[in-house]
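Ticket closed. Logging final result for histidine kinase.
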Amino acid sequence: IQQEDELDALLKQTIRASKMVEKELERLNKIENYRKEFIGDISHELKTPIFAIQGFIETLLNGAVHDDEVNEVFLHKAMKNVNRLTYLTKDLMEISRLETGELKSNMQEMFLRDVVLDVVENLQYKADKEKIELIVHDFDKNIQIRADRNQIKQVLINLIENGIKYNKVNGRVEIGLNSLKGDKIELFVKDTGIGIDPNDIARVTERFYRVDKSRSREKGGTGLGLSIVKHIIEAHGEKLSIESKPDEGSTFRFTLTKVSHVSV
Ligand code: ADP
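Final structure:
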């Protein structure tokens, strides 16, 4: 009987182990598929600027253009594509670090108002250039959050930049705060821009998904901004939500958790 019990235990152990192996294989398979897809996406995105640069340089080297002014235009176009490759690479590195969970959040306590004002100040020139008004609602200066400062700044930068990019002339971007239940708060970035079709809303946070590729490119977009935003917010254990009406504007909201200091 004892032998039978031992055999039974061994069998159960083996089944458990094989289930674990199966699960691990499934996980590795998923990662492998993800990597394949990611590499496919990247090569596709890199091709366009690289071919463009190649074309401009080849034309210049062939000496087909004898006009200095035209030469300069070609050089500027090549440079624009080099710049595109630079920020594409930067965003790609960020997203791959976020998606593989390599990037450890550097959590610290901070005053939310300081972070918001810092970001807005740096984006003011961009808004002015595009004739977009940036409005920051009153923020309670005592609210503190625990977060990775650079990552939260990145979220705000990406959302506000999008609000500026996908807006209309003389449009507005508002940044404000709502109180939710308990220690939760909600930051929102609301614009009076072109809006997003209901069918596209769920997809705009996918990497490289763009509603209008040429508009995004023209504005220096990479299609990675919102996917970075979503990853950062989820890594903080918070939620992102999007509300939008075509031709009227969009509101991006994300939750944050207030730090409450209990005084003794
Ligand atoms: P991109 O670099 O193209 O701006 P994002 O990931 O930031 O990439 O956004 C993905 C797409 O979602 C954009 O190309 C655009 O079509 C749409 N989008 C993002 N933000 C807004 C907004 N505030 N208003 C309208 N459309 C937006």
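Residues 158, 162-163, 166, 191, 193-196, 204, 209-212, 216, 221-227, 250 surround adenosine-5'-diphosphate (CB under 6 Å). No further action required.
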